[in-house]
Sequence to fold (87 residues):
Amino acid sequence: MPRHEFRPGRLVAGVTVVGAAVAYAGDAAGVWSIAWFAVFPVLVGGFLVAAVVALVHYLMRRRRSARTASSENIDVPASTSGSQAMR
Fold:
């Protein structure tokens, strides 16, 4: 059993931030040269992709849970049994 739910939007956002950190670390180490403002479009684009991925994942989970809930409604509703029915 998994310890927590998989969140692909957070994974994409984390990879984006790690990529920006690697780019700045490479610039600081002298491996390559990057302008100071070049990382901002990469971060914004990565966060937009992460938002779209999170939205798609949310809609898929919502649709799957609705489909599962609709197939499990075979019993009598709780409001027609027990003390609720005597009122």
